[in-house]
Design a protein that fits this description.
The chain is 71% helix and 0% strand.
Length: 203
């Protein structure tokens, strides 16, 4: 079970290394965005706003914000997905807080940082998705609202991200918000191009 792998099922060791690698990529992407004063969408965007507005630790806030979504994940997707998502969020939060002690940046252009940070986050999330995990957050809520009330998940996600974007103007300049939007676009391009369940079906 630990090492046994098939063309359609990952072993526990494969899942473990994937969650660690995905967390490392996401944490580095968040660190790059945070060091450049940028923001993001989803629950990460809320954590960024809280960090910039009140100085609260990003990792701790990100971990706490995701807690209410695990029940929905369990009901919507199942226990295995929920457990792996919880582990992914926990490790990502921890690495995000620890990484600035070991890595620093001398100069960061906001647009370049947004693009590279977005690509890192997108690839980290891609690793999670391919091992039936995620970074939690609004995506789970959007799926639940779609099933419960018939509201399209894409519209819910877009609406929540637009709210975060609007609030971002309170803590960042228009140029920083613009660069942050480019980073969000980079994340979604990586996922849209590379994540297709009909091409990658392992669980």
């Amino acid at each position: 079970m630990m090492l046994e792998s098939t063309p359609v099922r990952h072993s526990l060791v494969e899942d473990a290394q994937a969650i660690l690698v995905g967390a490392m990529l996401c944490a580095l992407g968040v660190t790059l965005l945070k060091s450049a004063g940028l923001l993001s969408g989803g629950t990460a965007g809320v954590a960024f706003l809280t960090y910039y507005a009140f100085g609260l630790p990003f990792g701790a806030v990100f971990f706490a914000i995701n807690l209410p979504f695990y029940y929905l994940a369990w009901k919507k997707v199942g226990l295995a997905f929920t457990v792996k998502t919880f582990i992914a969020v926990t490790i990502t939060s921890f690495i995000t807080e620890a990484l600035p002690r070991y890595i620093g940046f001398g100069f960061l252009d906001p647009v370049v940082s947004a693009l590279f940070g977005g690509v890192l986050l997108g690839n980290g999330m891609l690793v999670f998705f391919r091992h039936r995990a995620s970074l939690g957050g609004f995506g789970i809520l959007a799926l639940w609202l779609q099933d419960r009330y018939g509201i399209k998940a894409g519209l819910v996600q877009l609406g929540l991200d637009m709210i975060i974007l609007a609030v971002s103007f309170l803590v960042a300049s228009p140029y920083i918000v613009f660069a942050s939007v480019l980073g969000a676009i980079a994340i979604n391009i990586v996922l849209a191009v590379n994540h297709r369940r009909d091409r990658y079906i392992a669980v």
